[in-house]
Specification:
The chain has seven helices and seven strands, in the order αβαβαβαααβββαβ. By secondary structure, the protein is an alpha/beta fold. It has a single domain, classed as Rossmann fold. Helix 2 links the parallel strand 1 and strand 2. It is globular, with a radius of gyration of 17 Å. It binds iron/sulfur cluster (SF4). Iron/sulfur cluster binds next to helix 6.
Length: 231
């Protein structure tokens, strides 16, 4: 930035304008989106594809997902012609369970580290800009989220983390999905409000935080949004 330029106030920009701004700023940089195939991520992907149709879509293939989620991932990947990047753990599920048993029950943090965080860190290495579908109202751990944050991974990789829906409500997300004909993952109709690995996902109590059905309420984050340091 030279003496006459001022820093962009990302917080003041709408999601669509922020995406345009970031795509412009990242013209010579590498950009990706992490996508759990929940509605927020599909909305961000829908917006991003207007500018970057071949954007890498990183999915954490833990081996523990609902079969319905995998079917939805494959259907949307085929219909939208996605550049899907499955982030695979270093061990197969069979190897993991042979070594640790049901680690997700006894040590969910360690299970998430092995099957989500480590594969994500490897997958993010080539990228300068990382789009997410995070929203502030999803849980108390996300209340302070900024739309654009500078992050550093444990390997020293610096990147910009972009959450264009930070100030959106779930109703806005659903409205956008309906308005743009984005099909919804069928598991939502059964009462799930935040969907991750099957053994660690339950239907939350009425009126509870959307992520309260994850990990039996024992934790709120798997670690993929806390492993990098905000700088
Ligand atoms: S969400 Fe559960 S099953 Fe999935 S990686 Fe984390 S602890 Fe393991």
């Amino acid at each position: 930035m030279n003496g006459t330029e001022t820093a962009t106030n990302y917080e003041a920009l709408t999601a669509e304008v922020l995406i345009e701004q970031v795509v412009h700023e990242a013209a010579r940089a590498t950009v990706c989106l992490t996508n759990s195939f929940q509605t927020e991520d599909m909305v961000v992907l829908h917006m991003l594809r207007q500018h970057l149709p071949n954007v890498p879509v990183i999915f954490l293939e833990t081996g523990y997902h609902f079969k319905e989620l995998i079917a939805y991932r494959d259907k949307m990947t085929a219909e939208w012609g996605l550049n899907l990047v499955n982030a695979i753990p270093l061990t197969t599920l069979a190897e993991h369970e042979a070594e640790f048993g049901l680690l997700h029950i006894v040590q969910p943090m360690e299970c998430c580290r092995i099957r989500k965080v480590e594969p994500l860190m490897r997958s993010l290495e080539p990228f300068d800009w990382w789009f997410t579908g995070l929203r502030r109202e999803q849980s108390p751990t996300r209340a302070g989220l900024r739309k654009v944050e500078d992050h550093k991974t444990p390997t020293g990789r610096q990147m910009k983390k972009v959450s264009v829906l930070a100030d959106w409500t779930m109703a806005q997300v659903d409205e956008y999905a309906v308005a743009h004909g984005i099909p919804k993952l069928e598991l939502y109709t059964r009462g799930y409000t935040s969907i991750g690995c099957e053994p660690c996902t339950a239907i939350p109590d009425a009126g509870a935080d959307v992520r309260s059905g994850r990990w039996g309420g024992k934790k709120l984050e798997c670690g993929i949004h806390t492993f990098s340091e905000k700088v």
